[in-house]
Prior knowledge:
The protein is of the alpha/beta class. It is 36% helix and 20% strand. β3 and β4 form a beta hairpin. α1 crosses α2.
Amino acid sequence: MEKLIITAAICGAEVTKAHNPAVPYTVEEMVREARSAFEAGAAVIHVHVREDDGTPTQDRERFRVVLEAIRRACPGVILIPSTGGATGMTPAERLQPTELYPEMATLDRGTCNFGDDIFVNDMPTMRAFGRRMLENHIKPEYECFEIGHLDTVLGMAEKGLVPGAPMHFNFVLGVSGCTPATVGNLDHLVRQIPAGSTWTVTGVGRGAWPMAAAGIIMGGHVRVGFEDNIYLEKGRKAASNGELVAKVVRLARELGREVAAPDEARRLLSLA
Ligand code: KMH
Ligand code: ZN
């Protein structure tokens, strides 16, 4: 089996210090959390940014500062800025990090419930985002919260509306109102991706650890981090993103899977 790529989603747009005081807002806090994840074994950091007071933003200059600071602290790390942002943001707002020409960025492929909110990704938005990824030569991480999202991205790839093979998918399972985090659902999704693709699984909330174990044994890759889950185990909050990543590393070792360093992850993702 290929080595395991661990992604740390260190911040997100929804989780706050009220949920876990270690959730990062400031540039310094973002660097601290990225470094803890990187040193624990994460090859990839998924980046959202916040104002210092915690308000989610997609401001290009905030992204520039944070991405550069993380790059300095974590040499070689692969950065995947979010184009999802937070629910309610406009498409133009959300696209700002693509103006920095990152090697990868997330690309959300459909509208869905998101707790009490709706995460809007209609077809015109998705065509515009696909065009931007093609123009700026950014490899998307295709975020699929539902099976229809996978169908949409495969159809768009066939028509050349988004970057094609080799594609990389992130199956985000367990968001309230979306596909539950079960091995059966994950297996159903994985069976439909084109040969030669790579995939990561993200289990949200209590789905985090079962999905991490499933990703490891099924030959996929794993994302953890405060964006998705703040608990190391039931009733015990993680003190850092690094603690969450370290648990994935332990699970991988126990299950006989080696962890990829950034250069190896870059090769697996066809970025090198
Ligand atoms: N915050 C969610 C509404 C992404 O990063 O592309 C969207 C999200 C997905 O987190
Ligand atoms: Zn995200």
